[in-house]
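note to self — DONT lose this again. spent like an hour looking for the file last time. sequence + predicted structure for the chain T wanted, 459 res
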Amino acid sequence: MATNPNMVAIQTVTVSATSAANIEFTNIPQGYTDLVIQLSARSTGNFGGNDSMSDDCYLRFNSSSSDYSARSLYGYGSGVGSSNNAAQTYLKGFYIDGSGATASTFGNTLIYIPNYTSSNNKSVSGDSVSEHNATMAYMNLMAGLWANSSAITSITLTTANGNFAQYSTATLYGVTAFVGETGGKAVGGVVTSDANYWYHTFTTSGMFIPTQSLTADYLVVAGGGGGGIGDNSNQAQGGGGGGAGGMRCTVTATGGGGSLETALSLTAQSYTVLVGAGGSSNSNGTNSVFSTITSTGGGGGRGNNTGGNTGGSGGGGGAGENNNQAGGAGTANQGYAGGNGRNNAKSGGGGGAGQAGENASGIPSNRGPDGANGCGGNGGNGVATSISGSSVTYAGGGGGGSLYVGGTGGTGGGGTGGAQSAGTSATANRGSGGGGTPYAAAGNGGNGGSGIVIVRYAK
């Protein structure tokens, strides 16, 4: 397996009027690792004097006018030099052709911006040449810094002494890194293949970028809901199991007993992939997204005499002192409802993609002597699909907590409900719900499992 970067064009801006004060890129997607700008430009102004053939190009991020610094090495004909620019209101050091340069010539600049979404300061490098078709030319290497932890969402380019001349052009590229095999029809995620298909598996958010038109099968599973937790001061109020994240799939089976989803027709452009996180105690999981397909985060299990949350699959209802609390509803064609809680510390199981969560029971006959006092409901089972090339089960509900016997997690990695102990967390990247916890002193409810997105297309 190898790690390979790929550069994808996000936007191109060309000055179509006589001139333009700025070239701007806005609403920059956040799913890439690095950014690259390729600039072919000419200014209507110049440095003046002997330097009339060149002008300086400036850069700003997010419209910020502070915290820029740069160092440059440059050469011009027979001369060389260096500069050090600290505490600037812009990042400078990119040379382009000025108004005194030979007509219709354009300077060229390559700007590289790594880790542009990180919470660290942003480094920048630049390599530029002003091409005059004459005896004098500038070449410049720049290393710069924007001392700001914000993710870069917009970039503005401007010139020092004029405007960008007509036909100046800048293209913004995103660099996406993928791990796996090469040779498919797209990049993004972990790439594998067999005799018939290419598979792109996303366990974290990213971009899926076809290099040609293709028809794609998909599995989109949202993050599972967290297990509920009861009131420490009233041990009759136990926590329900977390509901599984919604499951939408075009291969083998989909969630909620619905018909198989329809494959997507995709073209050579970038498609967003968001992988939902699992929820914590009493909380829903977050949605997963691929292109136009959204799967809904699983409903959190609840305690303290409260009904389960709605979600992709519903969370289990918490135990009530003297009444039953309903499980949360699931989402049509994604998952099933959670089970109902029962009075006196017996909570419902979370719903799964393949089955509703079990209601808490009063006096079951099949769970041993402790079950005589009642049990938390089992989590609903998940659904198996072979979209990855082998059959894997996803999106099981979490078991309900109980003072007596906790419910088991549904197939697909659902967490087990606690019995005078904390519920267990669900398996990562299966979108299953966490197990419920009977009361706060026993610990938190189990965390829901993170989701997953898998894309498949024919060779």
